[in-house]
């Protein structure tokens, strides 16, 4: 919930209207589809479906999503429009899933399939578009000078300089304004556009003024000047200013770190793992089971028949499915399934597919270029060996080699491997010809682990679909 007057205004003028409109959209979509089905003569319990109880379940489902699973992020100042659209789509999907389950449990009757599917897709499209419009309105307000936040910087070192340069590089739609810098340096060394307000010692008197800042970024080491830092913290608490300490981590890698406590002492983990909590794991696993289960029960049997005929006609001597031992969650091995696209060879478990690979038969080339060969991995997802979104699993041979060559290689196994992932939709699909290619993939995998959110998974899913619709030169 909001803490400061500005946050309350932001909630009342931007978030609350968006939430009310979301509920209206979700309900109207369901109501209009129901009216259409009634007019079309589709039998279902229409009279029982539109009651106060049904509306309450829809409202509760929506609130569970935005307060717990996938909160609203329309007012975030560094979020791009694509992620805002993806988040709206994700919120609509999760609301639909929870609502459909509640209706089945509470009212003990089946919802019309046409109504349910129509409700899902229309809600996702309309909520995504509506959130884009809201984001555009909020950004327009910030450009005109409303909903802005002032940042004051105390102290100056390499990390502080990087933050200042980043904020100065934001456009007006972010609403961030650099109020100034207090530092014991000459103004000529500051980034262009930064204003020197005075030495570090003058910062407390300046910040005592009303509405002097919304954020304080302090790079002063409290061990060197405890009185100054203590006074800044006191001022920030009195005036409801958010205080951030900018530590210096020379010698440490620039990962997204996590602060925890060990016996009452603050300690810092070198890797932040958003998926490392029960709620996140349950949410991701539930989505994996539902989506993979639906796919395996509906589309997969037809895909299997089609692929089985093509594979057996191309190479009758081998199996339809290819099983390969790969490295999974926490370094555990598992059998990764694929539709077989190559003739049997002695180096299948050590050699990657390369362009023009003689082992690939013609129908197998089609399977690989279309990524249909990966679809049996939905079985791995349903079993729990894999997730739909995550770092791609590697052959055991590659794990053995690259774990020696790349220091943080094994970090990618802190989560379940996926059918597709952040690295794959950002240019790191297919053959890794050099150690640098693999290092680039590993860095992208670690970025995914440290920045995971349900919204990011939705974004990767749609990016994957978009890439499958066009030719990929790395798919061979």
Backbone structural class: alpha/beta
Count of all domains? 3
Beta-strand percent range: 5-15%
Instruction: Output mean pLDDT.
Output: 85
Major sheet characteristics = 5 strands, parallel
The total of beta strands comes to 11
Distance N terminus to C terminus? Answer: 50 Å
Task: Write the H/E string, N to C.
Answer: HHHHHEHEEHEHEEEHHEEHHEHEHH
Q: Strand order, biggest sheet?
A: 3-2-1-4-5
Outline, from the CA principal axes? globular
Task: Kindly state the percentage of residues in helix.
Answer: 40-55%
Q: Please mark out the parts with pLDDT under 50 across 5 or more consecutive residues, or reply none.
A: none
Overall radius of gyration: 27 Å
Separate helix tally: 15
Summarize the structure.
Helix content is 50%, strand content 11%.
Break the fold down into its secondary structure elements and pairings:
Elements: H1 5-40, H2 46-49, H3 52-69, H4 81-107, H5 113-143, E1 149-154, H6 158-169, E2 176-182, E3 196-198, H7 203-207, E4 215-218, H8 226-238, E5 242-245, E6 258-262, E7 265-269, H9 278-298, H10 300-314, E8 321-327, E9 333-339, H11 362-370, H12 377-383, E10 387-389, H13 396-405, E11 418-420, H14 435-450, H15 454-468
Parallel strand pairs: 1-2, 1-4, 2-3, 4-5, 10-11
Antiparallel strand pairs: 6-7, 8-9
Helix pairs in contact: 1-5, 3-4, 4-5, 4-15, 9-12, 10-11
């Amino acid at each position: 919930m909001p803490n400061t007057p500005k946050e309350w205004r932001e909630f009342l003028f931007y978030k609350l209207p968006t939430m009310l409109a979301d509920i209206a959209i979700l309900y109207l979509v369901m109501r209009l589809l129901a009216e259409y089905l009634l007019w079309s003569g589709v039998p279902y319990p229409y009279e029982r479906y539109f009651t106060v109880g049904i509306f309450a379940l829809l409202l509760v489902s929506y609130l569970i999503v935005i307060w717990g699973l996938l909160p609203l992020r329309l007012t975030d100042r560094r979020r791009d429009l694509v992620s805002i659209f993806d988040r709206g789509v994700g919120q609509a999907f999760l609301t639909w899933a929870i609502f459909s389950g509640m209706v089945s449990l509470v009212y003990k009757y089946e919802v019309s399939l046409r109504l349910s599917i129509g409700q899902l897709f229309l809600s996702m499209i309309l909520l995504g578009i509506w959130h884009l419009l809201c984001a555009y309105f909020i950004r327009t307000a910030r450009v005109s000078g409303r909903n802005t936040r002032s940042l004051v910087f105390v102290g100056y070192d390499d990390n502080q300089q990087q933050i200042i340069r980043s904020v100065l590089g934001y456009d007006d739609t972010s609403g961030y304004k650099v109020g100034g810098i207090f530092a014991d340096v000459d103004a000529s060394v500051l980034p262009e556009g930064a204003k020197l307000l005075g030495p570090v010692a003058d910062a407390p008197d300046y910040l005592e003024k009303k509405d002097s800042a919304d954020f304080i970024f302090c790079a002063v080491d409290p061990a060197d000047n405890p009185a100054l830092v203590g006074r800044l913290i006191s001022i920030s608490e009195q005036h409801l200013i958010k205080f951030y300490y900018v530590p210096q981590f020379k010698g440490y890698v620039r990962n997204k770190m996590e602060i925890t406590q060990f016996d009452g002492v603050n300690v810092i983990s070198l890797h932040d793992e958003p998926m490392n909590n029960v709620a996140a794991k349950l949410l991701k696993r539930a989505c994996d089971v539902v989506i993979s289960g639906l796919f395996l029960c509906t589309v997969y049997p037809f895909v299997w028949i089609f692929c089985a005929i093509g594979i057996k006609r191309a190479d009758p001597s081998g199996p339809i499915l290819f099983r390969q031992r790969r490295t999974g969650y926490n370094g555990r091995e598992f059998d990764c399934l694929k539709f077989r696209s190559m003739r049997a060879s002695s180096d299948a478990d050590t050699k990657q597919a390369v362009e023009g690979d003689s082992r690939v038969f013609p129908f197998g080339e089609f399977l690989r270029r279309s990524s249909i060969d990966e679809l049996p991995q939905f079985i791995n997802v349903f079993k729990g060996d894999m997730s739909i979104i995550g770092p791609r699993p590697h052959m055991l041979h590659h794990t053995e080699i690259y774990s020696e060559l790349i220091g943080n290689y094994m970090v990618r196994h802190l989560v379940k491997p996926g059918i597709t992932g952040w690295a794959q939709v950002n240019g790191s699909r297919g053959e890794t010809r050099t150690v640098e290619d693999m290092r680039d993939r590993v860095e992208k995998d670690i970025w995914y682990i440290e920045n995971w959110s349900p919204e990011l998974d939705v974004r990767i899913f749609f990016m994957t679909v978009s890439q499958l619709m066009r030719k990929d030169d790395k798919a061979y």
